[in-house]
Amino acid sequence: MSETSPKLRAELEGIPTYKPGKPAAAGGPVAYKLSSNENPYPPLPGVMEAVTAAAASFNRYPDLSCAALVEELAGCFGVPASHLATGTGSVGVAQQLIQATAGPGDEVLYAWRSFEAYPIIVQISGATSVQVPLTAGDVHDLDAMADAITDRTRLIFVCNPNNPTGTTVRRAELERFLDRVPSDVLVVIDEAYREFVRDREVPDGVELYRNRPNVCVLRTFSKAYGLAGLRIGFAIAHEPVATALRKTAVPFGVSQLAQEAAIASLRAEDELFGRVGSLVGERTRVLEGLRAQGWTVPDTQANFVWLRLGEPTVAFAAACEQHGVVVRPFPGEGVRVTIGEAEANDIFLKVAEGFRREL
Ligand SMILES: Cc1ncc(COP(=O)(O)O)c(C=O)c1O
């Protein structure tokens, strides 16, 4: 038998592995997972029933075109059904967007630090990541990003609000940026946390997309809608891009369970808005609590807060874990803490207070 292993693409060398948020420890007195920006609420009314009914026929393939969901989304957003494309979470759709636009020799531009899947999916494609540092205030530096566009740039991610900082770019600066981007470069506005935005100056990407054929909006059912485990997200884009997304989709990637759950969630919007409102209230409480303790925390419009701790990041995360909350450390930079149940947020605030006193 030969000793050589199958030839694998050189691009796979050194791809950073995606670090999922650590699960809450089992068996402790309390254990809250504030490490993955998930929704602390159980499924919305009607969702369990829809999923249970769909489960009875999972010997069948799902609807490949997600037709009923697409119809529902088209009505919700006031866009043609042909402008919608679904996928296995918005990260799946993001990967399809890169496959559709970029390969070896091409560049994909995004702010850094931002969503940690971007460098991974770019590297898999063989394209090159161009990362533009956030400003000192942890916001996208859109002027520097526009300056970094070259004739090899194929796709630009604008993560709004940004993961992990929660910071946003506002309408005037985003429009000015879009005006500077060549019309043959795709701009993907990743709005995974859109439902949590309360700042009216933060534009809804769907409005920006309408008269800009090179703008695509990414949304997900994983965060506000609480369907992270079912893997479903979607893009709204003009027809050439939406068609390309259908070509790059894994056939039957979105399960019927996910499709039915998404439809039922959209139909429970009143309840959804109530829950999101409560989380936004908790977000304000946590932010104000941290600032009262003396921390400098950037404004957040997402379901998490960012503490730029620098060196003691890992020690802070360990202290949180000791007290029963698991947060997401980015060693040497800071921690991202999801807004969870009030009890979990209380524990986090208490740990932050004690840690601050010892700094
Ligand atoms: C900015 C951003 N985009 C996309 C995603 C992916 O979400 P999903 O693939 O669950 O839809 C996340 C998840 O954390 C995110 O933070």
TrEMBL record:
Aminotransferase class I/classII large domain residues: 33-349
Q: Where is the composition biased (Basic and acidic residues)?
A: 1-12
Top EC class for this record = transferase
Positions of region (Disordered): 1-20
Does the keyword Transcription regulation belong to this entry? no
Residue numbers carrying N6-(pyridoxal phosphate)lysine: K223
Named cofactor requirement(s): pyridoxal 5'-phosphate
Q: Which domain of life is it from?
A: Bacteria
Q: Tell me the Pfam families matching this sequence.
A: Aminotran_1_2
Q: What is its EC number?
A: 2.6.1.57
Report the family membership: Belongs to the class-II pyridoxal-phosphate-dependent aminotransferase family.
Task: Summarize the subunit comment.
Answer: Homodimer.
Designated name of the protein: Aromatic amino acid aminotransferase
Question: What organism is recorded for this protein?
Answer: Streptomyces phaeofaciens
